[in-house]
Amino acid sequence: MGRLIRPFSQSSMALAMLGLASLSAVCAATPATAADETAAPGRALSRCPAPADYASPLVEKLPKKGIRTFDRLERERPLAAHAPVPPGLRGAIRRVELPKGSRKLVALTLDLCEQTGEIAGYDGAIFDYLRRERVKATLFTGGKWMRSHEPRARQLIIDPLFEMANHGWAHRNLRLLTGTGLRDEIVGPQRAYEAIRADLLNDKGLAADQCLSPDASLRVPARIGLFRFPFGACNAAALDAVNDAGLLAIQWDLSTGDPSPTQSARAIADAMIRNAKPGSIIIAHANGRGFNTAAALPIAIPKLRALGFEFVTVSELLAAGRPVIAQSCYDSRPGDTDRYDALFALKPPRPAAPGTIPGAK
């Protein structure tokens, strides 16, 4: 099913070369619940957010269809330098094998994806809980989602609990893309991330935002180093394109099943508790399509902690052991995401017009 990469010492060296050692699913296209399409995806935050700015009304969680305000591709910009992923780390990373007798580390990952013609949600209850309980998570974030939820993206980028990661521009099936279309889906989130980061930091990497401490600015890396394929689907060409862009491809070995409305909070929690192993990568959703996830995490996380599990970011997990790598992308068995070749074959986003503001109509 998968293969182990080279010995741990060599893999750690390769991670350091990528700049990742210093960093401490399928996104179901479920029909959106009807909601007020004029509701903002998050009210504008002041330069110095107050506690009330983190509050999230229920309407913010609900995806809204028929909104194309942010469909344009992100404008081109010079990007931070990167190197292709070295041979020993190329492929789809499904979990991490930890040294015998080491700490029981697991990585919780949350997808924040958004397709064209919609504004996806923001499940604030999930982040309220993670912050309150000091639970780390890696957020696989769509570039379009960052733009349509920019105040929330700013909050997440500067929060030391969370690691930002790339989930494609508009959640398109990369198995069906080639050339510029493939590149834009991979690079678009990096463009959005670096544009938001530039607004937070000055050209010396120091806090430009007066509300950020120097310590906070050090935790905002210059680029995103991890990628998750939309729909969990890839082919050899897409894998190569992601790795050539300097991104590690991250899958999972534990799916909560939260995109299904029939999956109860108890069922999600039971899946996490029953199937978690040291080195597991858990996939869930925080974009309004993680049904019952907010209620499941307070059940699962205390029980997993009682069993000795510790929650770390994906990059921390990778640095602690040997990634298990497959040469194809799948949910639970090879080939099970191939069905997305026929489903959700989305139209390409509109190109960004010269001189336009990214995301503007």
Structural class: alpha/beta
**Shape, principal axes of CA atoms:** globular
CATH superfamily: Glycoside hydrolase/deacetylase
Strand element count? 13
Task: Provide the domain count.
Answer: 1
Q: Kindly state the mean pLDDT as a whole number?
A: 84
Instruction: Give the % helix.
Output: 25-40%
Q: CATH topology, anyone?
A: TIM Barrel
Largest sheet: 6 strands, parallel
Give the amount of beta strand, in percent.
5-15%
Number of helices, where a helix is a run of at least 4 consecutive DSSP H or I residues: 11
Q: Which CATH top level class fits?
A: Alpha Beta
Radius of gyration: 19 Å
Low-confidence stretches: 1-13, 19-46, 354-361
Order of helices and strands: EHHEEEEHEHHEHHEHEEHEHEHE
The CATH architecture classification is Alpha-Beta Barrel
Distance between the termini: 45 Å
